[in-house]
From TrEMBL, chains A, B:
Broadest EC class assigned to this enzyme: transferase
Pfam families found in the cross-reference section: AIRS (PF00586)
Binding positions for ATP per the UniProt entry: G116, D117, R142, S222
Residues noted as binding Mg(2+) 4 in the record, renumbered to the chain: D22, T36, D67
EC number: 2.7.4.16
Residues the entry annotates as binding Mg(2+) 5: D223
Residues annotated to bind Mg(2+) 3: D22, D67, D220
Region (Disordered), start-end ranges: 294-313
Protein name: Thiamine-monophosphate kinase
A single GO molecular function term of this UniProt record: kinase activity
Free-text function comment from the UniProt entry: Catalyzes the ATP-dependent phosphorylation of thiamine-monophosphate (TMP) to form thiamine-pyrophosphate (TPP), the active form of vitamin B1.
Chain positions recorded as Mg(2+) 1 binding sites: T37, D38, D117
Further facts: Reaction mechanism of ThiL seems to utilize a direct, inline transfer of the gamma-phosphate of ATP to TMP rather than a phosphorylated enzyme intermediate.
Gene name of this polypeptide: thiL
Amino acid sequence: MLARILPRLDPGDSALLGAGDDAAVVAAPDGRYVVTTDLMVHGPDFRLAWSRPHDLGWKAAATNLTDVAAMGARPTALVVSIAAPPTTRVDLLEGIADGLRDALVALAPGAGVVGGDLSASSVLMIAVTAFGDLEGRAPVLRSGARPGDVLAHAGARGDAARGLALLFAQARDGSGEPDAALADDVRARHPHLVGAQLAPEPPVAAGVLAATAGATAMLDVSDGLARDARRLAEASGVGLAFRRDALGDDPMTALAGAEDHGLLAAFPPGTVPPRPFEVIGVVDGHAGRLTLDGEPVDTSGWDPYTGWDGGAG
Amino acid sequence: MLARILPRLDPGDSALLGAGDDAAVVAAPDGRYVVTTDLMVHGPDFRLAWSRPHDLGWKAAATNLTDVAAMGARPTALVVSIAAPPTTRVDLLEGIADGLRDALVALAPGAGVVGGDLSASSVLMIAVTAFGDLEGRAPVLRSGARPGDVLAHAGARGDAARGLALLFAQARDGSGEPDAALADDVRARHPHLVGAQLAPEPPVAAGVLAATAGATAMLDVSDGLARDARRLAEASGVGLAFRRDALGDDPMTALAGAEDHGLLAAFPPGTVPPRPFEVIGVVDGHAGRLTLDGEPVDTSGWDPYTGWDGGAG
């Protein structure tokens, strides 16, 4: 089965030795490498009735690449472990491999897959570990924002949550279970929003742009802009003041919606953040406080998966 | 839950930035790093009735560290992703963390855990990605053995399979299911063999010793000495001639038994392999052929898990 999958994957420009031995060897030109890992499990993280195999590979790559980008690093390589039921068709695994490959080409050209593992499991699971090159720069941490900094964001704001809401509302059968034909129909009518949920296109290249523009802090927005902003605020000991007019027609979804995998960054006062970053507010001195046009933002009770049976489907 | 686990883990000497941001940063002093990844899934790879949580963390670390060692590299760091049922007790996860930590201290001092992820799943699963430092040396591949080389092995030969056979024979209940009390009893009577299966102690430090002694080829012996030897023979285009007197009282189990995680290496003619390596034969020119005292070795039909229901237990 690995023989069908590995030829679909390119080891990339940083692989000194790709898959096939006990381990791979990857270049780290500046003597350091960035590493992050993320799991996707059938049920809590995706449904096969909604996500095509290509979507799964794409999203597994995209989410990990964004974590690398959020350090200000250029993604170089992935390793991928897949646990799948013994009855899994090889074309599902091939679809996952094609999704990984296409996401790398689109989001991180030059990065590749340098290794992996395949195991039997009753539950389909994809574990990706991603690597990046800081190219001599310091990593951009969550903790470096200072009062007066410009607060900027790159990527979608709420679209992945809007897509998930559409799937919940319109792609479940009479008993509430995810339905593939209904999902295809919703996706045909709302390709942008459903695509943002199932196969997001995060602004991976913007990570390096932010770092070279002097970003003082940055993080990947995976749990919603407000929740992740709070992490940056707490790590930096600052407050964050959002501007409502920067958040579009539906600022609450922009703040609360998860899984967009955008980048939130702070830049020194007076910086014009590089595109695709857009200014959405300012850093202030009220440690740990988030505001929207001066009003407190409370996201403590927000959970889009409440009532969702992660074990079924 | 992560707050209970992370303090139990040391990021190690190579971590420039440990867990807590979007990604970690690890040192790669010679501008390269070795990377390998391996999954352990409840059912096919372990049973909770037999393995204690500490065993699981230990084995997940040990198997990955051996893959790093098999390249001739010094292990530096791990990232660990765990998928566990929502009902999992935190002390099980703490036990896994303690096993990871203790295996690192025992097998790869200075290496640490620099990151991880925790997800919900109906099946317990541990995915480890391990990193290593080649310290300026070339990686030791499977493909470098040459006729006349000394064939040597470090580590257990068959003990893990003997331990698994004891568990199969004596630690299953009346309906054939793994039983924790019976496993404790077997382990008390056969601590070495059952320990070799559940918490192996592979010769991780021997990887660097082999590389510095000039090993021409090396690999991790995880699927049985004969099966993995065949991989080395095919990659190198050579034959391997084992000596029966070097394989102990039970040479067939020594050749066929899986999961010992020893190291098989070839050294230039005349080399005295460094301890704990022991000479077990010689490399010859019969491409792809394995022999034992001149007789062909056939392991094509050997599978210790035949008839084993990987989905239950």
